[in-house]
Design a protein that fits this description.
Cofactor: [4Fe-4S] cluster
Keywords: 4Fe-4S, DNA replication, Iron, Iron-sulfur, Metal-binding, Primosome
Largest sheet: 4 strands, antiparallel
Strand order of the largest sheet: 1-2-4-3
Helix content: 55-70%
Shape: globular
Number of helices: 17
Protein name: DNA primase large subunit C-terminal domain-containing protein
Structural class: mainly alpha
Order of helices and strands: HHHHHHHEEHEEHHHHHHHHH
Strand content: 5-15%
GO molecular function: 4 iron, 4 sulfur cluster binding; metal ion binding
Pfam families: DNA_primase_lrg (PF04104)
């Protein structure tokens, strides 16, 4: 790899999507066949942070990232700079539209925090805007620098922050007038939009190692999301008591897997029959790649009997097998609800514990 000045690496780490960041990555010219484990680890951490952390947890992640902005350890900086495009590749293997949005959102929020914490805030704002080929003008008002952005350019990017919506802005002669902090927020939204537009990236022709790393990351994401799902509804329904077939469908749907129709129907009827609250069922199905709230609510209302007047029964084990969804032959029940009832019954659990601890019991 080429030798790159520390200051240039630090800038590329803060703004890897910028033209200077892209040029630095090209200058480093990483060998895709020989990327270090550290690069893949940093890339995976970035994807995991985007896809699994809550708002407060992401803020902690961003704060920790900012604390390292003055680090001058070359190997660390190089790994972090290269990790950004590698993270986009690993994310693209996941084929999650919602995941792309969350990743771009995290990078946008990170960009804002870096911009407003720069020692030379205005200079860095102008440099980054210029690198992104944006027109921004300076205006002096009562000895305070204001940023003027052409109206057509301003509204050409989707804005997540309601405070940036056009109705809340001051418009003069075709320009939006912003103070530096609001301008930094707008520029972060531009970064979000451009990163989102760049996803997914083409994964064809990459070394096999990338698919292997993406597969490991996918399993890690599913494990984390399944744990989060179980923690979220613990006390309302007992997810630990789900039969293997329903546990698998629940975890996959929560991870954004596109389940076939019968799998969704079987899971929905099961959840309705164990009395999971309807908002929780709809929130779960919102994870599906092709989620449509109106259609989902219609089907859940119909299955629960709210609109049809008759609640659908959960499928028997025979039906689950017929649908190709049975994954265990050791449940010793004829119906998934039997399994759930058995596992949620305290006396049944105590009996199973006694049987296990009995003299001569098989390990």
């Amino acid at each position: 790899m080429a030798v790159v000045p520390i200051a240039q690496l630090q800038y590329a780490r803060r703004y890897p999507f910028s033209q200077q960041g892209k040029n630095t990555i090209k200058q480093l010219a990483p060998n895709m066949e020989q990327l270090s484990e550290g690069v893949f680890q940093r890339a995976s951490e970035l994807v995991v942070a985007a896809l699994t952390l809550s708002g407060k947890q992401q803020q902690a992640f961003i704060s920790n990232h900012l604390k390292q902005r003055e680090l001058s350890y070359e190997e660390f900086l190089v790994q972090d700079v290269i990790a950004f495009p590698i993270a986009k590749i690993l994310l693209s293997f996941q084929r999650q539209t919602q995941g792309n949005e969350r990743f771009a959102g995290l990078m946008g929020d990170l960009t804002f925090e870096y911009l407003v914490n720069e020692k030379e805030k205005l200079t860095n704002f102008l440099d980054l805007a210029q690198g992104l080929k944006l027109r921004v003008d300076l205006r002096q008002e009562d000895h305070i620098q204001k940023i003027a952005i052409p109206l057509t350019q301003y509204i050409s990017f989707p804005l997540r922050d309601a405070q940036l919506h056009l109705v809340n802005q001051r418009v003069e002669r075709g320009f939006i007038i912003l103070d530096i902090n609001a301008a930094c927020r707008w520029l972060a939204e531009v970064a979000h939009a451009q990163i989102l537009a760049s996803l997914p990236v083409d994964t064809k022709g990459l070394p096999p190692l990338f698919e292997e790393k993406a597969s490991l990351l996918q399993q890690q994401l599913r494990d984390i999301q399944a744990t989060q799902a179980k923690a979220a509804v613990m006390g309302i329904v007992n997810l630990q008591a789900f039969p293997p077939c329903m546990d698998k469908l629940y975890s996959e749907l929560h991870a954004g897997v596109n389940l076939p129709h019968m799998a969704r129907f079987d899971l929905a009827t099961f959840l309705v029959n164990i009395e999971m609250p309807q908002p929780d069922i709809i929130a779960l199905f919102a994870k599906a790649p092709n989620y449509d709230e109106r259609t989902t609510r219609y089907h859940v209302d119909n299955i629960s009997g709210k609109t049809s007047g008759k609640k659908y029964s959960a499928p028997s084990c025979a039906k689950v097998r017929e649908h190709g969804l049975c994954i265990s032959r050791t449940c010793n029940v004829m119906h998934p609800l039997q399994f759930y009832t058995r596992e949620t019954n305290p006396s049944t659990r105590e009996q199973k514990t006694e049987e296990k601890d009995a003299p001569g019991a098989k390990e």
